[in-house]
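Q: How would the structure tokens look for this protein?
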Amino acid sequence: MVLEEFKTRVLPVKNKLYRFALRFLNNEDEAQDVVQEVFIRAWDRREELHLYRSVEAWCMQVTRNLSLNRLKSGHYRNTQELAAGHEVQHAQSPYEQTETQDVLQMIDQLLQRLPQAQQQVLQLRDMEGYAYQEISETLEMPLAQVKVNLFRARKTLREQLTKMNAYGIGQNS
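A: Here is the predicted structure in token form.
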């Protein structure tokens, strides 16, 4: 694989890899470091990448593994930053911005309460748009388990959001 092919096949998934790593690590700097490490590994294996059916799925799998390794290591430092996808639109009024931030923080907290497998499947399917088979390959999980985890994650989120809405958005559950 030459540099131009690398730029067209690997680099375009940078933002997806970043969001995926950020979901694990909840730290922007750590997520960026993971993505950089994925690109280094991809470049080092550039001659083998054509053997993979989906280079993007391989990159996601490496991102997942590196993120999990960082979580397990003592090097990892936990911070409470919002995910990159939670940026507030500038066209909103200050009140709307605050309300949007509050809702996004609540959703993020609910997501973090889910089991890790459910978080990963929900992230890849609903936020990144991956097909079930790609998720199965990326997470090394049977296809049926991917579907079960997605169903359970969506159901839990729906129930919690409904419960919170019934009692008022600003209250803790």
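The longest helix spans residues 143-167.

The two ends are 52 Å apart (CA to CA).

Upvote if useful.
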